[in-house]
């Protein structure tokens, strides 16, 4: 994936940036920062290219997420070929597979940084893998931008300034479900299945704190390990609670299992809330759409299966370019749209950087001011600050009907509803 030159106002911004932070070529192909940017890191970036590295579970228990880099690559191929690239530079995006295994993620991060000599790690997927790699990235002062996990520590831990999340953090998502129940089922009794790691605990704790002092109560909890073959035993146990709401905090493989088990259990018919990371059509389809009617979740980006976006300019562009640059990938898969939105967010962040350096990208990702990303839902923007590493904290509820999700209600801004997330 390559490119050169951007047009219009973006070109003017780039020229101004180049004048302030101009550079000269280094022996390793990088650009040596000069002027206001002198002494800053330029490994992996030249006047013509930017090298990015992503780490995803292309295999293993979370392999459904392997669709995300397909959307990212399609976006970068599109801007490289038709829009002059990102900040006038062709993006070279290398994807490595960690199998959702933290030790492998560390190995791949080292390979990308030390052998591939990438400018930044753009997305490491999963809380365990990102936890395993963020000390390394920060010690090396390599931007680890828009990690594909919603753990709250990416935004609340000030000791890792080179790492930042993207999607709504899990505490915020738990708050969204709490807000929904307080309004729609104010006396709900809730049974919870959660992954026994930072991901599962973060969302559960966000939900638990948000319902404190209300009549919504958690009556039973069950955890599972990512190494477990099935969550059916946990589901049978939860069914004995006779809770009228089931909160499903799982990754896709286990999300499908929990949905299927819920459909088979007799005598228990709770409102089923499935967290966003397991709410993709690819998770629901194996269960059978007839078995997931009425399930609810929350979202923050446009679903390519929702007909309300058929005439949306960004959705039209996304579908056309996915067919053009990723012909083997189905544009209807939401994870592709997720990747497209994340890549667009990187594009806007990089073009906002005052210096085309690692430090410049770090500062830009920590200074996003109401940035509009066309693939995000209306009312959802990117907003960060020096002490706010949570780019997205708004979501909208959705209900599964027929063969797709339908949005309902208003976008819930958890910053306004509950205050800042502190970890």
UniProtKB/TrEMBL annotation:
InterPro entries: Leu-bd, Peripla_BP_I. Pfam families: Peripla_BP_6. PROSITE patterns: PROKAR_LIPOPROTEIN. Coiled coil: none annotated. The keyword Transmembrane helix does not apply. The keyword Transport does not apply. Residues 1-22 form the signal peptide. Keywords: Signal. Residues 49-401 form the Leucine-binding protein domain. It comes from the Bacteria. PANTHER family: BLR6548 PROTEIN. Belongs to the leucine-binding protein family. This is Branched-chain amino acid transport system substrate-binding protein. It comes from Actinomadura namibiensis.
